[in-house]
Design brief:
There is one protein chain. By secondary structure, the chain is of the alpha/beta class. 48% of the residues lie in helices and 10% in strands. The chain has a single domain, classed as Phosphoenolpyruvate-binding domains (TIM Barrel, Alpha-Beta Barrel), CATH 3.20.20.60. It contains 11 helices and 8 strands. The chain has an 8-stranded parallel sheet with strand order 1-8-7-6-5-4-3-2. Strand 6, helix 8 and strand 7 form a beta-alpha-beta unit. The longest helix has 20 residues. 45% of the residues are buried. This is Isocitrate lyase/phosphoenolpyruvate mutase family protein. GO terms for molecular function: lyase activity. Keywords: Lyase. InterPro entries: ICL/PEPM, Pyrv/PenolPyrv_kinase-like_dom, Pyrv_kinase-like_dom_sf.
Length: 279
């Protein structure tokens, strides 16, 4: 007889163990059950969601254009489709205050995910590009307390948007990272830079697994590993590439009446079989 709570704790522990500086966890981000199954089938040790990809496929804009309920239903579908651990991009927490962030984390656990990304760039508040570090630390502490209260060692990946928002450099990033780690974060995610010198300095000065966001033009994962990175993700990059194919194929069909952009697609039987095997 299975024990869902024990299984969730085991997946959370397994996910934590994958964050090794110099031997990074590679995460091709997914946005629905089918993309998650494809990522798992390709050999990924875990699946990370992309908030942008999830929002787009559900007909909303990124930046908390989705409410918590719709966003977490997508996480439930993704976690239910794969056997590997799932970590959820919950943007800035889908909540106005720390208590609400705690509620979101409890919903994440109920959805079957064992990790979260929480960013310090607020959405729709009319404030600055980043929340004050102390205020963000309170939100991270609420996430930590909610997970601890549920008895699940949730991996809290605190996103620092200094580089992404042009709101600071290495020193500012390290200062924020320290505050978030003291509040209970387990890892630090710094999107917006893949400059080798910057990444190496961040990895050396942040006392936690460092996650960077890569894409076309970034150093290969092996080079990022050598710089001390513990996690490499691609955000909405794969979703953007998939949607670009939709537009190319649609325009070709409508403008030229031809079908070349569809060449190389997955066989119907292959994709159908993958989904039939979803847990």
């Amino acid at each position: 007889m299975t024990n869902p709570a024990a299984e969730l704790r085991d997946r959370a522990l397994a996910f934590r163990s994958l964050h090794v500086p110099g031997r990074p966890l590679i995460l091709p981000n997914a946005w629905d059950a089918a993309s998650a199954r494809l990522v798992e089938d390709a050999g990924a040790a875990a699946v990370a969601t992309t908030s942008a990809g999830v929002a787009w496929v559900l007909g909303a804009a990124d930046g908390e254009g989705l409410d918590r309920g719709r966003a977490l239903r997508a996480v439930t579908q993704i976690a239910g489709a794969v056997r590997v651990p799932v970590t959820a991009d919950i943007e800035s927490g889908y909540a106005q205050d720390p208590a609400g962030v705690g509620d979101t984390v409890r919903a994440v656990l109920a959805a079957g995910a064992v990790g979260v990304n929480i960013e310090d760039a607020p959405h729709g508040t009319g404030g600055g590009p980043l929340r004050p570090a102390g205020e963000q630390a309170e939100r991270i502490a609420a996430a930590r307390a909610a997970a601890d209260g549920a008895g699940v060692p949730l991996f809290v990946n605190a996103r620092v948007d200094t580089f992404l928002c042009g709101a600071g450099g290495v020193d500012d990033t390290v200062e924020r990272a320290a505050a978030y780690l003291a509040a209970g974060a387990d890892g630090i995610f710094v999107p917006g830079t893949v400059d080798p010198g910057t990444v190496k300095e961040l990895a050396g000065r942040i006392d936690a697994p460092l996650n960077v966001m890569a894409g076309p033009g970034a150093p290969p994962a092996a080079e990022l590993a050598a710089l001390g990175v513990a996690r490499v993700s691609v955000g909405s990059g794969i979703a953007q590439a998939a949607h670009a194919l939709v537009r190319r194929a649609a325009r070709e069909l409508l403008d030229d009446g031809t079908y070349d952009a569809q060449a190389g697609g997955l066989a119907y039987g292959t994709l159908n079989a993958l989904m039939a095997e979803a847990r």
